[in-house]
Design a protein that fits this description.
Belongs to the zinc-containing alcohol dehydrogenase family. By secondary structure, this protein is α/β, with parallel strands linked by helices. Helix content is about 25%, strand content about 30%. Strands 3, 6, 7, 11, 12, 19 and 20 form a seven-stranded mixed sheet that branches. The chain starts with a strand and ends with a strand.
Amino acid sequence: MKAQAVVFDDRNQVLFREVEIPEPGERDVVVEVEYSWISIGTESSFLRGERISGEVPYRPGDPWPFPIAAGYQKVGRAVQVGSAVTHIKPGDRVFATVSWIKGMHFDFAGHVNPAVTDGGQVWKLPEGVSPIAFSGAVLTQVGYNCGSRPPVQRGESAVVIGDGLVGQWAAQTLHARGAAVYILGHREERLRLAEAGGYAVALNGRSVDPAAELRGAGASVGIVVDTVGSLDTFRRLQPLMKHDSHLVSAGYLGENGAIDIQTLREQEITLHSPSGWSTPRMDETIRGIAEGWLRTESLITHRFPAGDAAKAWQLITAKGSPCLGVVLEW
């Protein structure tokens, strides 16, 4: 079968071109894609050649992982359903993760249309909510995963490091669970989104000392969620963390992920290290979007026709890029 896909043909090279995809089997669903959401952090690291797989950094001598059809999340209509798939029927609006592809470094793809996808990676979407709201559901699930890991005592302080998408959704999840959330970042426009949404107090690390601000507010921190891989920031916050508190480390650390367990033990800090997605977490994420406590559409800053993916990436990778949520329209 033929399809169209966004392909990283080499480092820093983005193409929109025809690709080969396999014929669907009895376990597959064929999706006519409407929207796919770019995962800026993960996809950028592949585009720059920094990773060779999800959590494996590139090292000299490794084969470059090109070409690849990057990404892992999209929504559309099911147009063909394999005989072994029972939870989806033709015509359903669905969310799909990675799909099958031929002739690439990996045999799976994200931004591809039509998308032949294993039925276990396809969810029927609830009615009454715009489908674009679900188009980044895997990434939304990463934020949900971060915010759902630690136990929460109602009203206790939680600090989310990072004002990107994962940080926003982690903050939303912690807020929905009853925490008093602070979001620490450097982009004023992103921090304003969190405050306007009512789910976090903003701390701009460029203009304030976050530890001093938290100390002045009398915050006894029970949870720190690091979504950007900044252990230095965590170490500055650690003295404010109360006994029997929690660190959720979700940012990509590459080869610089050393944590001194002994210093955690002194405060009995529990370390959580979430990664990837699971069916139960995806179920809860889709439910959260449908119920409105996980907010996605307000975080979409840019939309591009899929054929203009190279232009999207030019903006994403530009210095001081204004992008937060970027969606391709098919």
